[in-house]
Amino acid sequence: MSSRGSSSRITDEEINELVSKLQSLLPESRRRNIGRASASKLLKETCSYIKSLHRDVDDLSDRLSALMATMDANSPQADIIRSLLRS
């Protein structure tokens, strides 16, 4: 079933607006490299950025786990970290 002709079809104007919003979410340095890029290039750059964020989260999680493993579970520092993670 095609959505052509139906009221749920997205317009070029809506696509352009969504592309602009997506571009505004990328860090400034990445946006500078894209300039006024095509939607395809912007989506590729966004996927790359999301992958890098996932790698950063994994790295920070590993580092936090290693730090927590070296701490006394009842130390004030461990309590602070646990309270931050619950927030």
How is this structure best described in words?
This protein has 87 residues and is mostly helical. It has one domain (12-86). Helices cover 74% and strands 0% of the residues. The protein contains 4 helices and no strands. Helix 1 runs parallel beside helix 3 (39-70). The model is unreliable at 1-5 (pLDDT under 50).
SSE topology sketch:
Layout: H1 12-25, H2 28-34, H3 39-70, H4 76-86
Pfam families: bHLH_ILI (PF23174)
Family: Belongs to the bHLH protein family.
GO molecular function, one term: protein dimerization activity
* Average pLDDT rating: 83
Task: Provide the structure class.
Answer: mainly alpha
Number of strands: 0
The largest pleated sheet is described as: none
Pick out the low-confidence regions: 1-5
End-to-end distance: 46 Å
Number of helices: 4
Helical fraction: over 70%
- Please state the overall shape, judged from the principal axes of the Cα atoms: elongated
What number of structural domains do the residues give? 1
Secondary-structure element string: HHHH
What Rg, in angstroms, do the CA atoms define?
21 Å
Estimate the strand proportion: under 5%
Protein name: (wild Malaysian banana) hypothetical protein
InterPro entries: bHLH_dom, HLH_DNA-bd_sf, PRE
Domain BHLH: 1-53
Family: Belongs to the bHLH protein family.
